[in-house]
């Protein structure tokens, strides 16, 4: 998303309550906390909370993206430097300030001669227009692109098997969405927006002040490049309304805890038919009592008896989609891991990981007299055979 003019007026760090040098994790935590507190579902009919929710969402969409955050910081830093050199105040009209009784023109920072600042013979309006994808002056019937909607983020929780095998989840979000009455155009059904006659659809107008030229948003169409004579009564001409909607998310097999799934065009609606942002679904995977995961392999600990390890046996082992027979060879040592190929998590490139089964002796906590007698005889026979479990143990 190209830089927005609103970046000059909005302090996204302040909106999230974090420092300008906050880490990505601090930004994420602050956003999630505020999103829960300000969500429209938690604040019904509270317009102030709704506006803050939108601001917090926009702040997160910019600061959570390293490229957007750098662009935002650079843009803010450039204009902060301009204010510092030219005095206090904002950038109204032609983006100049007044200091000490003399008018300060931000173009002076970049020069107006050959090889200076924004380019030979150019002015800062050219640079400003380039930053915001807008030319310095309207040309022909070029139409300003309306602002793309903000990206949104939500969360869902899956069981271990759902994450490993894939599933579908229906989530509910409350956000700005294209108006269903005007289909996002902002105009009353049966009518259409028309090209703004003041800016000829460019969204900006230019004016001269002495030797300098300036471009600024068209006040007649508010920078959109179009005018709506008969606004949609549902969205008041914005082309979007805040509503709650269900969205079905298809979870691919093998998604990991903390993974993000992108749903293109399911984020906040753009202004007057502009493209919607994207929705990112952060996946949380609940721990499982039986299975753990290592990459594409699934791990399980199998309780066995001492006799089963010594004599060997075949046991039934659970998998992600049923069970499988596993042969335990005779004289298997406690803690050995046996591999069942192809019964792990599906791989993106095809195939699947393996099921890793670690055998662990389960010691009985209570034996009857017959079992104690038999075990005592076995211990004696074991010793008579010369077996010493601690042979060569404890020596260097």
Automatic annotation (TrEMBL):
Domain of life: Bacteria
Pfam family, one: DnaJ_C
Zinc fingers (CR-type) by residue: 166-244
A GO MF term: unfolded protein binding
Cofactor(s) the protein needs: Zn(2+)
Subcellular location: Cytoplasm
Domain CR-type: 166-244
GO biological process: DNA replication; protein refolding; response to heat
CC cofactor note: Binds 2 Zn(2+) ions per monomer.
Ranges of the CXXCXGXG motif repeats in the UniProt entry: 179-186, 196-203, 218-225, 232-239
Binding site for Zn(2+) 1: 179, 182, 232, 235
Cited Gene3D superfamilies: DnaJ domain, Heat shock protein DnaJ, cysteine-rich domain, Urease metallochaperone UreE, N-terminal domain
The J domain, residue ranges: 11-76
Subunit-level organization: Homodimer.
Function, in words: Participates actively in the response to hyperosmotic and heat shock by preventing the aggregation of stress-denatured proteins and by disaggregating proteins, also in an autonomous, DnaK-independent fashion. Unfolded proteins bind initially to DnaJ; upon interaction with the DnaJ-bound protein, DnaK hydrolyzes its bound ATP, resulting in the formation of a stable complex. GrpE releases ADP from DnaK; ATP binding to DnaK triggers the release of the substrate protein, thus completing the reaction cycle.
Protein name: Chaperone protein DnaJ
Organism of derivation: Williamsia limnetica
């Amino acid at each position: 998303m190209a830089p927005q003019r609103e970046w000059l007026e909005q302090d996204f760090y302040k909106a999230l309550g974090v420092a300008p040098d906050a880490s990505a994790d601090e930004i994420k935590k602050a956003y999630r906390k505020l999103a829960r507190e300000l969500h429209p579902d938690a604040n019904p009919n509270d317009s102030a909370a709704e506006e803050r929710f939108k601001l917090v969402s926009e702040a997160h969409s910019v600061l959570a993206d390293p490229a957007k955050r750098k662009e935002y910081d650079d843009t803010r830093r450039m204009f902060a430097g301009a204010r510092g050199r030219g005095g206090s105040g904002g950038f109204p009209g032609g983006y100049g300030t007044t200091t000490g009784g003399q008018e300060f023109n931000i173009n002076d920072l970049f020069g107006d001669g050959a090889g200076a600042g924004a380019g030979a013979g150019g002015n800062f309006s050219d640079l400003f227009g380039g930053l915001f994808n807008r030319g310095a002056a309207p040309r022909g019937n070029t139409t300003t692109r309306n602002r793309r909607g903000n990206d949104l983020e939500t969360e869902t929780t899956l069981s271990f098997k759902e994450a490993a095998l894939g599933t579908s989840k229906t989530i509910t979000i409350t956000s700005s969405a294209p108006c269903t009455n005007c289909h996002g155009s902002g105009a009353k059904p049966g009518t259409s927006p028309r090209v703004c006659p003041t800016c000829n659809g460019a969204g900006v107008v230019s004016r001269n002040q002495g030797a300098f030229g300036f471009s600024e948003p068209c006040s007649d169409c508010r920078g959109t490049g179009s005018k709506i004579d008969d606004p949609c009564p549902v969205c008041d001409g914005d082309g979007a309304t805040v509503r709650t909607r269900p969205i079905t998310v298809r979870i691919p097999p093998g998604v990991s805890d903390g993974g993000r799934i992108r749903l293109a065009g399911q984020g906040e609606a753009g202004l007057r038919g502009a493209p919607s942002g994207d929705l990112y679904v952060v996946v949380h995977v609940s721990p499982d009592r039986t299975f753990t995961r290592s990459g594409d392999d699934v791990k399980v600990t199998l309780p066995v008896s001492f006799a089963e390890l010594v004599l060997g046996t075949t046991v039934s082992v659970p998998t992600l989609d049923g069970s499988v027979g596993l042969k335990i060879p005779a004289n298997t040592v406690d803690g050995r891991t046996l591999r069942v190929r192809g019964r792990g998590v599906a791989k993106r490139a095809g195939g699947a990981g393996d099921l890793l089964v670690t055998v662990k002796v389960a010691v009985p906590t209570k034996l009857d007299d017959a079992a104690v007698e038999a075990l005592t005889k076995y211990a004696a026979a074991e010793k008579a055979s010369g077996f010493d479990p601690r042979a060569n143990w404890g020596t260097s």
